[in-house]
């Protein structure tokens, strides 16, 4: 059993051929990807299968969805020990206004936010927008 199969099984996901391929595709990208990009990469695959796989990955904390303000959800692989918990796993995302790429800045955690009593946070999203290191080096 290879490393990807082990990662999927640890998260309770059966490692089918398509799931392994989608995981590999996402792992080779150093940025968040849209469902359309995944569909284009696997043109002959059933779109419903691809969509279900991403939903399964998201439910099992294998990927997280990023709302970067473009109106198109993007997905990125979670870190190995991530449970997508509001208190410890959330990090900043950076969206480049030039190349339109969104990346996870996993070393930069979102600080704890004290909410009024009775408020229960379920998700926090912090997106910094600007020019990425690749575009600013040009």
Could you describe the 3D structure shown?
With 138 residues, the protein is an alpha+beta fold. It has a single domain, classed as Winged helix-like DNA-binding domain superfamily/Winged helix DNA-binding domain (Arc Repressor Mutant, subunit A). The protein contains five helices and six strands; from the N terminus they run ααβααβββββα. It has helices at residues 3-10, 17-28, 35-41, 47-59, 133-136; strands at 33-34, 63-66, 74-77, 91-96, 102-109, 127-130. The strands form two sheets. Strands 1-3-2 form a three-stranded antiparallel β-sheet. The protein has a three-stranded mixed β-sheet with strand order 5-4-6, with no helix packed on it.
Give a quick rundown of the structure:
It contains five helices and six strands, in the order H-H-E-H-H-E-E-E-E-E-H.
């Amino acid at each position: 059993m290879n490393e990807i199969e082990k990662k999927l099984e640890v998260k309770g996901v059966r490692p089918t051929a398509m799931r392994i391929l989608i995981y590999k595709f996402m792992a080779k990208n150093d940025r968040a990807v849209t469902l359309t990009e995944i569909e284009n990469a696997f043109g002959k695959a059933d779109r419903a299968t691809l969509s279900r796989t991403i939903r399964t990955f998201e439910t099992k904390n294998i990927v997280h969805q990023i709302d970067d303000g473009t109106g198109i959800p993007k997905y990125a692989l979670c870190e190995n020990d991530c449970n997508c918990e509001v208190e410890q796993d959330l990090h900043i995302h950076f969206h480049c206004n030039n190349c339109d790429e969104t990346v996870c800045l996993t070393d930069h955690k979102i600080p704890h936010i004290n909410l009024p009593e009775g408020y229960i946070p379920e998700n926090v999203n912090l997106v910094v927008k600007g020019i990425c290191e690749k575009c600013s080096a040009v």
